[in-house]
Known about the structure:
Layout: H1 2-28, H2 32-57, E1 67-69, E2 72-73, H3 77-90, H4 107-120, H5 126-145, E3 147-148, E4 151-152, H6 154-164, H7 167-172, H8 178-201, H9 207-231, H10 233-253, H11 257-279, H12 285-291, H13 297-301, H14 303-320, E5 328-329, H15 331-337, H16 353-360, H17 363-372, H18 376-381, H19 387-390, H20 401-409, H21 421-429, H22 431-439, H23 448-455, H24 474-482, H25 484-489, H26 517-529, H27 532-537, E6 541-542, H28 550-577, H29 584-594, H30 597-603, H31 607-639
Antiparallel strand pairs: 1-2, 3-4, 5-6
Helix pairs in contact: 1-2, 1-5, 2-5, 2-6, 3-4, 5-6, 5-8, 6-31, 8-9, 8-10, 8-29, 9-10, 9-11, 10-11, 10-29, 16-17, 28-31, 29-31
Amino acid sequence: MCVFLVAAQTFATALACYGLWRLLRIISGSGRIPALIVALGFSARALLSVALFWVSYLRLPLGRSLQLGRGFWFYGVDAEYYFGYALETLSRGATAILHVSPSYPARVFVQVIAVAVQLFGPIPSVGILINCFTYLGLCLLIARLGTQDARITPVTTAALAAISFAPASILNSTQMLKDPFFHFLLVVALVVSLKWHDLWTSADASGRRRVAGLFGCALLLLLCAYAITTIRWYFGILLLVSCAVLFLWQMITARQRVAAIVVNLAMLVLLARVADAGGLDDIPDYVRDILRMRAAPRTIASLPKSVVSNVENVRVGFERTPGATNIKPGGVVATTTAAPPPPPPPVETVPPAVTSASVIDSGAATASVAEAKPKPEPVITKPPVVPQETKPVVPQETKPVATTAIATKKRIAPTKTIAPTKTITTTTTTPPPATTSIAEPAPPPPQTQTAIAQATPAEKPKKPRPRKKPAAPAKSVVVAEKAPAPVVAKPAVQPAPPPVNPAPSNPTPSFDPSQNVKQRFLSSVAATFVPRAIAQRLGWIRMGGGRGFWFFADIDTIVFDIVLLFALITCARQLLRSRGRMTPMFVMVVLLFMVAAVPLIYAIANFGTLFRHRQMIYLGLCLLPVALAHRQRQQQKEEQPPEPAAM
């Protein structure tokens, strides 16, 4: 049984290789240069994938720190998980492929891997066959879209070259990642949607042929929508929106308008249900309510606000997740966009103890304190001015008995609260007249207060409180207390030196609540369109990690910029030439690929993830010129006069 299984898997592998060769032959029939470009891209992917697989599988001493073993590498961590999910699914039997666990990410991709493992064997190298098939299928579809008179147009040849030699695309094709398969699904959905549109708007197809074609396109489009939503739900929603625009176009331009309205509305409802089934819990609640057509008008009205909030939450989630390649604003972006911090509040130097002393003292003392509040500094620095205020303190005898007792006998008592400066200075100026009058009549009434007053000049300073000793040298105490006050506030700033981080080996979160939306967006744009070596030197971004792959990533960024400029220039020229008229294919590409560009660039705050997601924008840029070339071909067919009937 084992020998038979091995023989069957070997035969299936041979058939798969033959299928790859046939796909190459089909593409080569469209032109010599496009065939050479596609063949070189295929060879680069196949040979590099095989070499990297054996290096990691055999644990050869080549980049051992980057190897994960069993044929996997550090940039393909997801591939190891997908392969494990496929093996776990097959462990429950071959029929379990149809019932993949909903907890798995990218369920359709896991099903494809499980089928490949069942056909070719339980080894990670089956991912090489999957990636080679998706690459050749993608190139074949693009070649068909850009073929004119059995020849591939120059714009399509440029698109094939951009896809074949993209560094990130080649690198992702060496591992069992979902990105190549996902790109293939997007192009399949695009081609099927255009075929659906042509069947409604053209008059070439007969009745039965059109019905069969519409049924086949509807089935394929629903399958693609489900598969796309299981991998990345937001692209499933974008596909639904682009199809809605395309269906509206068909309702207006179709020859059989009533049938087009009924069928397209039914198709739109089916697409919404399929997208809901594919996304499951990944889809936000407000989007799910709209797909199920039970959203309240308030939910629909607040849809833009909900989308912005969702994108912001994704960004914060990336920033809170530790990552070595997290994108952070550089010094230039942080200083130019950040608002200057508000000035610190003024520090009031008025001591609070002065008010308590004014309450204890007489009304005249309170008046002196009120005069000292607006000018606290001269009072502290020049205590000799205080004797002028202490002169009116003597007539306190007019006050009630309780207060006079405190005022007369407690000339030294203010030393209990050493903090108030003015009360201490008053005691220093008044003692000559006050102590002589107090010391003699004090003994007859043996009260506790008189005992305290007599104990101060005697030997009992310890009994009441040790603070009463410095009654006479109060001036020196004032200076000693006021001096440390500014020193206590300053040392608190000195603990700032801890920013000297010892280059942590483990990645840390990059979340910074002080960053605003403009700083985050500018840093993400710089990381997307500017090579890291240049952006960091200019102070636009800060990124670490990379494991020595930054040179490779910078090359991919340069290629991305070249394709962007080529697409913009080519599309601008063609739109000017056609006076701004667009085609359904161009609208589909813009809605399916370009609308997602801004949210993706802002939301993804980790360059490792952005490096992979950027390829979807890259694919859309490659397809834009092909879309406008497709428009010109369709216009030429429509403007061509009909041939005269044979006599």
